[in-house]
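Q: How would the structure tokens look for this protein?
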Amino acid sequence: MNHVDINRPEPLGPEVILPPTKRGQRTRANLLAAAESVFATSGYHDASIVKITEEAGVGLGTFYVYFPGKKELFDQVVFDLNRRVRQAMSEASSGATTRLEAERAGFRAFFAFTAAHPALYSIVRQAEFVSPEAMRAHYTSIVDGYISGLLSAQAKGEVRDIDPTVASWALMGAGELIGMRWVQWEQQAGGRPEGVPDHVFEALMSFIETALAPSASVKEESV
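A: Here is the predicted structure in token form.
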């Protein structure tokens, strides 16, 4: 993935007005963290507001100070996970000087994030049925940055002349499924990987490098 341009300045979904006090911001953050855990372990339909507030250590009435209902909280959990994973990938690849360096750094960050936050997979998949608009916004926000990065790399002659939209969705899908197989499934089997195994990661990077490598003519024109 190209992660240099993923951390867009605009918010994903409705603009969030944070509580004016530090205490209020901490309470809201605690509710988001509790909801992430409960939605991931219990599923949306069995995740009651009571369970979430108990997990967060706040009163039931406090919940409605910050969120209108469970659906709105679920959307904000999706948006928050999206913001955090994009930030992790963007920061990791910020020092990259070439397209391949950005891919390598960004993918490592993505796999590390999913290992530390396995709820990402579960919650985004639930969103397909609970909040399709949030799911689409999650993937589209990542792909938009990816397309921008591919276009920039194409202009520099770093990658081949391919449809950047199709390439972005294809490579993002490859990264997500690799992470599901070697991070999520391994954790479910009792392991705690910090990311995908090195040999899997290098195989993926080799695939991406081959897929994106510019043709000889493109290289010559860029000299």
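Residues 164-188 form the longest helix (25 residues).

Residues 2-11, 217-222 have pLDDT under 50 and may be disordered.

Upvote if useful.
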